[in-house]
Amino acid sequence: MTGTLKTRSVLAASLLAVLGSATAADKVTILSEGGASSYWRAIPETIAMPAYPGIVADKSEDVCIGVGYMLDSDGSTGEFAVLNAWGSKTAQAKPTDAHFLPFSQNALAAVQRWKFATTGGGSAKVKPIYTAATFAFSTTQGGDIGAVRGHCTIADLPDFIA
Q: Domain total for the chain?
């Protein structure tokens, strides 16, 4: 548990450094996953879900990755961080463990391509938002993807980062 708390403290400190670098005029709002939908809508042709990594030899493990990202005022994404990771065959692993690297790379590559438009129309100026997305990787036919995602979903992102 101490390792998890230490990892979380280091992650929180680095995120606060990034989020604290915003100017007062562009103060960043931190919203939990799905919370940005009041301000932003995804541009469908840019949204692709990552595939199970081909490089992983054992494709029977279910894995989830939680990614934090900045949704900038121009609708692009940036400031990516792996916030959470879980594997059905991986006990007490940290999100930064090499085991999760292929999954994290695929998740981060997907979010990097995402683009958003404001819900208020083209003239509406919105401030940057820091939020999260959770991805599930599974090759299990008929498996419960929601349950896999549940291991990495952060219900209260502002509290998680604080």
A: 1
